[in-house]
Write a structure and sequence with these properties.
The chain has helices at residues 8-19, 22-25, 32-52. By secondary structure, it is an all-alpha fold.
Length: 67
């Protein structure tokens, strides 16, 4: 019997984010450790990009030298 899991969308969303990395689209890596390293690198790039962005509605800090 098929039962829809309530948090399945979290896994599907994460996998779709990973597929955006070109290296993870195809199975280029021959060793599982290299594939794991590429997944970790892709998630690191994704999360660092999100952390670097300013959230909407938050004020930008003023530059030190406006001239």
């Amino acid at each position: 019997m098929f039962v829809v899991l309530p948090r399945r969308w979290v896994l599907e969303r994460t996998l779709s984010w990973l597929v955006r990395s070109r290296r993870l689209v195809r199975d280029y890596e021959t060793l599982p450790t290299m594939h794991e390293a590429m997944v970790l690198w892709s998630m690191t790039m994704l999360m660092s990009g999100r952390l670097a962005r300013t959230p909407p509605g938050r004020l930008q800090s003023t530059p030190l030298n406006p001239h």
